[in-house]
Amino acid sequence: MTTSDHLWHRRALLAAMAGLAVMPSIPLDAHARTDADPFALGVASGDPTTDGFVLWTRLIGPHATPLQAATVAVRYEVATDPHFRTIVRRGRGGAFPERAHAVHVEVTGLPPGRPYWYRFHALGATSPVGRAATSPVIADRLRLAVTSCQHWEQAWFGAYRDIVAAEPDLIVQLGDYIYEQSYPDLPRIRDFGASEPRDLAGYRQRHALYKTDADLQAAHRACPWVVTWDDHEVLNDYAGLANREGLPPALFAPRRAAAYQAYFEHMPIRPGLWRNRRAPRLYRAVDWGDLVSMSVLDTRQYRSAPPCAAPDVARNVRLEDCAAASAPGRTILGSAQERWLSDRLAGERRPWSLIAQQVFFAPLWLDGARTSTFSDQWDGYAANRTRLLRDMQRPAVTNPIVLSGDVHSFWANDLRGEDGTVTGAELVTSALGAAPPPTGRFGDVGQNNPHVRFHDVRHSGWTQIDIDRARVRADMRMIVDRGDRNGAIRSGGAFVIAAGARTLSAA
Question: Is the pTM of this model over 0.90?
Answer without folding.
Answer: yes
